[in-house]
Records
---
Amino acid sequence: MSEIKYKRVLLKLSGEMLGGQEKRGIDISVLDEISNQIKRMLEAKAEVAIVIGAGNFWRGKKEDEIERTTSDYIGMLGTTMNGLALQSRLQKNGIDAILQTAINADAILVGKTIDGVYSDDPKINSAAIKYDNITYQDILNKDLKVMDLTAISLCKENNIPLVVFALQEPENIIKAIKGEKIGTLVN
């Protein structure tokens, strides 16, 4: 593997992706593929921290259905469940892994079901425009649904680049740490 651009990364994975074709629950084959790619990242001498969403368990609900704070706690439990499942698969595949809550990183890698940041949801709006590069401020100003706006603000404050890419192509994880042009770069 050629020299990597990002030596310390936070890999943000979509919980929905862990559900495989069903997009719910946990698909062990998806965990194994991700585990293999993480192993390759480590072999390339990258330091990797991982955050996993909970979309395969909980998508959040309207406040009139479930109180917002309760909904947030349910999502956090789903995230913990996904983290424990991935930790288990990593350990089974010979990779030391520990579930933690706070990380410092050179970049945050955001693996999603779509291949970057768009002006609108491309699954709903076929005229949505994909951005190759975008600033944190543009994401905030346009209220784009890349990830939680508070997280975007924190990345902006700490000047941590985001690389948003399609996780459906597992090789994109390796391409991202090499700094290859994939998805959308947010800085």
---
Amino acid sequence: VNKDLPMVELTISNAKLMAEVAADANTRTVGLMNRFSLRTDHGMLFVFSESQPLAFWMRNTFIPLSIAYIDSKGVILNIVDMKPKDESTHPSAGPALYALEMKQGWFRERGIAAGDKVNGLDKAGRAKH
């Protein structure tokens, strides 16, 4: 389980959230594995070193999640719902620099969709490797 990761506040439309920042290979690999809950309006931001097609799966992940793939300009490319422990991959709709995982339905409940801008990503810093 990832512990003591840096936190960053992000805003999408009028919705605010707190995201743990996973910005290196180890923390990105572990992600939200082996956790059983997420606090309200909390999630995890994955930061990559360059824009690339991304795909996530849910191995050892017990919380139903929605993932937003975000390009280098902070625009959401696509949002995908992922089932717990599902090992099929869920790809980005294009080259993404970030991925944001929230509790499943979080984006939908707030009317957030592809094309929306995520503000505050600059505060997350750059990927370490």
---
Amino acid sequence: MQAELEDIIGRFGADTGTIHLIEDGILILKAHVGVPPQIVQIVGRVPIGKGMAGLAAERNEPVSTCNIQADSTGDIRPGAKQTGVIGAVAVPIRDASGRVVGTLGIGVRREHDYSGAETARLLEEAALLAPWTHP
């Protein structure tokens, strides 16, 4: 999964990325790029409904912000500001039936509002990750 994440980050020109899969009702970090070590510990286990990844999983829809550092929606957890990421998006990874099995997130170290087309492309990338969730 690490190689796939690195490819996705390259195609999107992103600086960071994460893949979480749901295990026993919790998002478990399976791959990451550009995430500081202290943050890896924080995002290693994410409750459904918490932070961008948790909200994307809970809502079964993309969650994004053009500026994590200035976000006031309450969707962004305080630790996210320590990543240095500014623009970010997290999308659900869905199995063939549409059930959420994880999340894919990418971010950049500049303001960036992910367009509908970019988000749709990221959802397509996430769909390609789904087969690995059920070997």
---
Amino acid sequence: MVSHESVDSLRASAEEDFWTANLVKDKDDEKTRIICFHLQQYAEKMLKAKLLERGIQYPRKHDLVSLLELFGNKEILDKHIENAANLSDYATAFRYERRIPSIEEMEAAFTSAQSMVSDINGL
């Protein structure tokens, strides 16, 4: 964990990522790589904020599955594991392979990120 991170700063940064994803989508919904990257960042930062709030140390990587595992909630992990893996790819593989997510994949990323964050915030 980086010492300058705080729950509030992570949440504020996450909200900026979500805002950016929506803004880009409203302007040009074919910029799916950018949109999906910001959705992954939104989910990652919100998960890390909740972990930090609970005093749980987390790794410095972009793997949403490993972050979900840290909550120790099998129901939430089982519900989101596939979507978490898919979202994680937008911060890693998609950034470097230059594959463009489809509009359907981008729409699924919105749903996945919001659902995951909602469930984690409900803990």
